[in-house]
Amino acid sequence: MFHPGHWAAAFINTVEREGGDIEDGIEFLKVLSSWVKKLPGETAGGTAALKMEKLVRAGIAKKGFSFSIGQETALCVFLLMVQKKTVRRVDSVIEKTKDLLDKKRGVMAAYVEYAFPPDEEAKSRIKEEIKKRCSAAGVELTERVNAGLIGGYRLRIGDEIIDSSVRSQLRRLSACLTRQPD
User: How far apart are CA 67 and CA 160, in angstroms?
Assistant: First the structure.
């Protein structure tokens, strides 16, 4: 069974042990992933990994580029995934790597929907509130505009949802007004 968390942890541990930059490795994994998605058919198996390694190294050498520790590790992880016929799941490894790094660094992921795009000051206030509430070192905010909220916002931090939208306030008011007295 494939476990992206195991691959991600091994990737992070190897890069850190070697003194490399994990962000550099993640970006290189993204590049490799985008290259493979453009190839016709399924790229898998030992011979495909060997061919791919030669192509990648030749292409990079042609541009006069040298690998960083993070990139070299990313290439090794990627080629191992090709050999193990799991390369189609490389994006899940990239995502899990980001999640593990965020957790390690104390960065909290939060998702927010706005009725209208807020200004930078409002975004900063939301991030600061999340930091205080969760004792986080930083906040990674994923934003989306949802006109159906009418006004306000809906925030999700882990399993907790904070709904400060006008739509939910109107729904609560309607429920109170239509409730039959006991």
Answer: 42
30: enclosing H helix or E strand:
helix 22-38
Give the full edge-to-edge strand order of the sheet including 152-157. 138-145, 107-114, 152-157, 160-165
pLDDT score of 44? 56
Dihedral sign, Cα of residue 25, residue 28, residue 30, residue 32: negative
CA atoms within 13 A on the CB side of 123: 15
- Dihedral sign computed on CA atoms, order 40, 53, 62, 29: positive
User: If DSSP codes are grouped into helix, strand and coil, which group holds residue 37?
Assistant: helix
User: Is the pLDDT assigned to residue 63 strictly greater than 80?
Assistant: no
In angstroms, the CA 29 to CA 47 distance is 20
| Spatial separation of the C-alpha atoms in residues 1 and 45, rounded to whole Å | 17
